[in-house]
Amino acid sequence: MRKLIVGCGYLGRRVAAAWLSEGHKVSALTRSERHAEELQSAGITPFIGDVTKPPTLSELPSADTLLFAVGFDRTAGLSQRTVYVDGLTNVLQEVGSRIGRLIYISSTSVYGQQTGEWIDEDSPTRPATPGGQVCLDAEQVVQRFFPTGAKRPDPTAVVLRLAGIYGPSRLLRRIEAVRARAPIAGDPLAWLNLIHVDDAVAAVRATETVAARDSTYLVSDDCPISRQDYFNRLAAIVGANPPVFDRSMESSLRVSGLGKRCSNRKLRNELGVELRFPTIETGLLDAVCDGT
Asked: Domain count of the chain?
């Protein structure tokens, strides 16, 4: 089968590797010649273009599956809305009629709950941050191109709302801060929702191997964890002293309050995803040992 990845970064490269191992033909969009060479070396067919520049997208191929997993590059000088909303619109205008399924990577930031309550796919989406609103607006772009209830052979779309991705090489800055005992901003009792990158890959693949009954899934591990427990666990793994929290620095965070706790029940029950790292107890150790 033919696979196309727009946003072949931390998550996308791992999905590409899984697809290639299964014998699929994988193509990917990239903005740079250097990255194109890396993709080519990995067996991925590169197309050089930019989601914010429609004329550069004309050579994108048809595909059985399109994974849109674009990250936000703060050095590019563009707004999140330009990249996520306009960029997604540009890509779908070019290839939307030539794909079999869209898998769109969104974020749990579309939920704005801040009192520690449990949330799921049916919970109200009232983003507490501008970035969360952009993610929600991008989801609405998906819905416009692929309306719920549309019948095959029309393309179908699945939105995966990912919790914070962690994994190898993704924790270096936090490890440095913990070792330096730099004060950590915010309430130590606030909740974190996380997903190991390997399990995020499993969720992406499950949307193809299982007949998804719905268009939206929360992708998080089994056990939300307090910031205090998370950083204590990280400090113990790297042999550092327990971290110090500074609530007076909370204004530096994107959100305040206790946050929310994300349920992955639907992901498990409907898509049958079995997490390799259901909690950070093993997942964090894997990330640190493989990434440092």
From this structure: 1
